[in-house]
Amino acid sequence: MRKVGSEGETILAVNDLKVIFHTYAGDVKALDGVELFVRKGEVLGLVGESGCGKSVTALAIVGLLPPNAEIVSGKAVLDGTDLLGMGEEKLRLTRLKDVAIVFQDPMTYLNPVLTIGLQITEIVASQPDLFIPELIKNRLDEISTIEKAKGELVPKLQVEREKLRAKSQTNRLGNEELTRLTRLYATSILKSVRLPEPEKVFKMYPFELSGGMRQRAMIAMALIRRPKLLLADEITTALDVTVQAQALQLLQQLKEVIDTSVLLITHDLAVVAEVCDRVAVMYAGNVVEVADVKELFRNPMHPYTQGLLASVPRVDLVAEQKSIQGSVPDLMFPPSGCRFHPRCPRVFEKCPVAKPTLIEVSPGHLVSCFLFGG
Amino acid sequence: MKSKPPATEDRYGRRADIKYSLYLLKLNPVVLVGFIISIVSIILALISPILVNPSSWHLQNLDLRLCWNNPAFNWGIGGVFDCTGRIYPLGTDQYGRSLSEMMVLAIPIDLEIALEVVLSAVVIGVLFGSIAAYVGGTIDELILRITDIFLAVPGILLAIVMIVVMGRSLFVLTLAVLITWWPFYVRLVRSQVLGEKEKPYVERLRAMGAGRTRILFVHVVPNSIYPVLVQATLDIGSVILTVSALTFIGLTPSPLLPELGNLANQGIQYIFTAPWLILFPGLTILIISLGFNLLGDGIRDILDPRLRR
C-alpha cells in the first residue's frame, strides 16, 4: 500500500487537513481530514458539489481562511516546507512567489480604479529582489529572439545585452531599469496569455476589458510570479461557454510553457474531463476518491463518484438522468462514520460506525470506502 | 490617402484622460459653471500679488473714505463723497482704500485658508479613517471616540473659544476651523474603507502576498477617495463661509485685514451710506462658495474611472 503524498515528484501534499468554522450557531466541521497530493507538472482536478470544502481546502493551503476558521490539524507541504506551520510573514512571501490563486469571478477580483498594467507590475514592484533574475532573463530571451529573427543585432541591443549580462551577476538593478524591465516582462506575460495588443491593455482600466480578457489578465497576474503551484478556483464558472473553452486551453498551454502544477477546483465534470490529468473527488469535507481522469470516468468506484457521474446530463444517452438520493449533510452535525452513508445506495453495518481511510485499490486509484477494504 | 487610426498614445494615457475629462465637463453645464467660477477665483488668487501691491492694505487715506466715482452706476444716495477725480470701480471703504483692490487681496487669503483646512482635513481623515477601518478593534474605537468628542461641541462655538484663547491670527483662525472640520473626514473615510476592504479584489491582493500597507494605501484608499473628493470640493465653499462668518463677527487679526468676511463686517456700519461695502464682499463670498459647491456636485462623475466609461 502506497501512502498518499509519498510520491517522489510531489509538489504539494496535504495530509489530514481538518478545518472547523466557529459560528454563532455552532462549529461547522468543514474539512474532515483531507488527503491529496499534486505531482510536479500535472493538473489535479478537485471536484465535488457546492459546500463540500473545495475552496476551503485551497484557502487553507495559502492561509487565507476567514478569522472564524480554525485549522485543527494537518499539514500542507509545498516543495518540502509546511505552509501551515510557517509564520505570517513567510507565508505572505510564499503567496507572493510560489503559490498563486486565480479566483472565480474576474469582474470583481480586479481593482476598478487602477490600470491593468499597474496591477500586474505591482507584484514585481512590491518585492523586486525575488524577480530580478527573471526580469533579466526575460529581456535577454527577447533580445535573442530578435537576433534570431533578423540574423544580427543593432549596436544598441548588443550594448544592452552586455549590460544585462553584467547585471545578472550582481542581481541588482537601478530604479529606472527595474521599471523598464518590469514593464517589458509584464507585456510579455500579457502576450503569453493571448491578450491582443498588450501595450494597449497595459494602460486600460478593468471596465474597458471583456470578461474573458479580465480572466486572462487575472491569469497573467498569477503567471508573472512563475508559481510552483497554481490554485485555480472555479475559473470557468463566471465565464460563458466559448470563453470557458479559451481559458481552459490557455491553462493547458501555459502549464507546459512555465512548468507549473495546477490544482483546478471545479464542480464541472466536463471541465475535469477536458483538462485534468488526475481527479480528486470530495464529499462533505473528505476526499473520497482519487484516480487518473480516464480511470475515474471509466471505472468510478466510490458510490458517491458513481452517483455524481450518473447525474451528469448527457445528450447521447436516452437513459434517464439519475440524481443522488437525499441532500448534503449539515456539517454542523455531520453523519457518524462515513459521511456519505445516509445517502449511499450500498450502505451496510460498518458504514455509520467507523470512518474509512483512503487506500490504493489499483495503481494510482485511491478510494475511501469500506466496500473496497477502507 | 488613407487616414491612419489614432495611435495608442492618443486613445489611452494621461493626455487622453484629460481630454476626456474636459469633454465630460462640457456635457454638464451646471458643473461647467462651477468649474469656471472655481478656476477664475483660483487664477485671480494666484495673480493677485501682480494686480495689487500686497502691502497696500495698510495704507489709509482718510480724505478718500467712502467715495464712489464709477460713472457706470450711481447709487442715488445723497452724501456720497466724490473721489476727487480718481476712478474706483467699486468705490472706497472707510479707510480710503479701493474696495476692488481689497477684494482682489481678500480672495487669496480666503482661498488659502479654505484649501489649508480642507487639505489637512482630508489628509487627517484618510490617515486615521482608513487605519481605524482597516485595523479595527481598539484602535478603531479610540479614533471614533476622539472624533465623537470633537463632534459633540458645536463647531462655531469651539472655533470662537479657540480664537479667544489662542489670540487672533490667521493661523489660529485656520486651526480653529480645522479642529471643527477633521472629524467628518475621519468618519467619511472610515465608512468608505469599511465597505471597500471586504471587496473581492482585496482578497485577491492578500492571496498575491501584498502587504497590509500596500493593500490599504495603494488599493483601498484610492477606491474610497472619490466621495471624499466630492466632500472636499463642497467643503471649500463651506469653509469660506465659516471663515467669513467668524471674521464677520469680529474675530479678525486686524480690522484692516482684507478678508471677505471682515470687509463685509467693516462695511455693515455704512450699509445706508455706502452699501457697496457690504454688497460686493458678500456677493463674492456667495459666488465663490456656490462655484465650489456646483463643481463638487459633478466632480465625481468626471474623475471616478468607474463612472466615466
Provide keyphrases for this structure.
heterodimer, A: 374 residues, alpha/beta, eight-stranded mixed beta sheet, four-stranded antiparallel beta sheet, 12 strands, disordered N terminus, B: 309 residues, mainly alpha, 71% helix, 0% strand
**Envelope shape of chain A:** elongated
Low-confidence stretches of chain A: 1-8
The main sheet of chain A comes to: 8 strands, mixed
Count of helical regions of chain B: 12
Quaternary state of this entry equals heterodimer
Percent of residues of chain B in beta strands?
under 5%
According to DSSP, the number of beta strands of chain A is 12
Instruction: Give the N-to-C terminal Cα separation of chain A.
Output: 12 Å
Mean pLDDT of chain B: 86
The helix-strand sequence of chain B is: HHHHHHHHHHHH
Helix content of chain B: over 70%
Main sheet characteristics of chain B: none
- State the end-to-end CA separation of chain B: 32 Å
Rounded average pLDDT of chain A: 84
> What is the tally of helical segments of chain A?
12
Radius of gyration of chain A: 23 Å
Structural class, from secondary structure content of chain A? Answer: alpha/beta
Secondary structure: helix percent of chain A: 25-40%
What are the secondary-structure elements of chain A, in order, as H or E? EEEHEEHEHHHHHHEHEHEEHHEE
Query: Which segments of chain B are poorly predicted (pLDDT under 50) over 5 or more consecutive residues?
Result: none
How does the SSE layout of this entry go?
The complex is a heterodimer of chains A (374) and B (309).
Chain A: E1 10-23, E2 26-39, E3 43-47, H1 54-62, E4 69-78, E5 81-82, H2 88-97, E6 99-102, H3 116-126, H4 128-150, H5 155-170, H6 175-192, H7 198-202, H8 211-223, E7 229-233, H9 241-258, E8 261-266, H10 269-275, E9 278-283, E10 286-292, H11 293-298, H12 303-310, E11 359-362, E12 365-367
Parallel strand pairs in A: 3-8, 3-9, 6-7, 7-8
Antiparallel strand pairs in A: 1-2, 1-4, 4-5, 9-10, 10-12, 11-12
Helix pairs in contact in A: 3-6, 4-5, 4-6, 6-8, 8-9
Chain B: H1 8-11, H2 14-27, H3 29-51, H4 99-135, H5 137-152, H6 155-166, H7 170-196, H8 200-207, H9 212-248, H10 260-268, H11 276-303, H12 305-308
Helix pairs in contact in B: 2-11, 3-4, 3-11, 4-5, 4-7, 4-9, 5-7, 6-7, 7-9, 9-10, 9-11, 10-11
